[in-house]
Design a protein that fits this description.
39% of the residues lie in helices and 21% in strands. The protein has 214 residues and is an alpha/beta fold. The protein has a single domain, classed as Rossmann fold (3-Layer(aba) Sandwich), CATH 3.40.50.150. A seven-stranded mixed beta sheet has the order 3-2-1-4-5-7-6, sandwiched between helices. Strand 6 (197-202) and strand 7 form a beta hairpin.
């Protein structure tokens, strides 16, 4: 996931707004008690999501892939005072810790946290959304994009995480392409060729595809 030299990444974090104490606590608890803690957005990416949200000032946010709630809390930092975030995750085992931190953040009334299959839930949601964040199973990224594009307003944004996939998407010496890598290669190609959107791939952490609906 890390493409920058360690000293550059450390320097960047030292010159980026600090995590709140709550986010630091969530970061620590995730790494101590939850499987695959690198799935957490973390300091630098979290601050980027917060900054982007504060620039957009969304009234409605859709998140696919809640994990332990770190990114949702960051995205809510820019949420309109009357706004709401809907976040969907398939893993009910993380619900207790996630809801605990949503409550600590004072966001229980701002976040609609749903456990279930996103491909089934999203079509039932009422749009439009100002911002969508995709950070779930990679196999379904194209399907998530199409569903989000239908729900996001014109001029709204979709952000997709992990689009560099630890560099595998650009590794020409990779002897065997696994299903997740192929899915992301296909996703990145489709976004690049889609005339309905404008896009920017940022090499932040594991790669963020920023997509604006035209």
């Amino acid at each position: 996931m890390k493409f920058l030299p360690e000293e550059i990444e450390t320097y960047s974090e030292l010159h980026t707004e600090s995590e709140t104490d709550l986010l630091k606590s969530l970061n620590r608890e995730t790494y101590a008690n939850v499987l695959n803690p690198r799935m957490l957005s973390g300091h630098l990416q979290g601050r980027f999501l917060s900054m982007l949200s504060r620039m957009i000032r969304p009234k409605r946010i859709l998140e696919i892939g809640t994990y332990t709630g770190y990114s949702a809390i960051c995205l809510c930092e820019g949420l309109d005072p009357a706004g709401r975030l809907i976040t969907i995750d398939i893993n009910e085992e993380l619900e207790t810790v996630t809801r605990k931190y949503f409550d600590k953040a004072g966001l229980t009334d701002k976040i609609d946290y749903r456990i279930g299959e996103a491909l089934t839930i999203i079509p039932e949601l009422e749009g439009p959304f100002d911002l969508a964040f995709i950070d779930a199973d990679k196999i379904n990224y194209i399907s998530y994009f199409e569903l989000c594009l239908d729900k996001v307003r014109t001029g709204g944004f979709i952000i997709a995480d992990n689009v560099l996939w630890s560099g595998k998407v650009a590794d020409r010496e990779l002897k065997k392409v696994d299903k997740d890598t192929q899915s992301l290669l296909d996703f990145n190609k489709i976004i690049q060729q889609d005339h309905r959107v404008s896009n920017l791939l940022l090499p932040v952490r594991d790669g963020l595809m920023i997509i604006q609906k035209l």
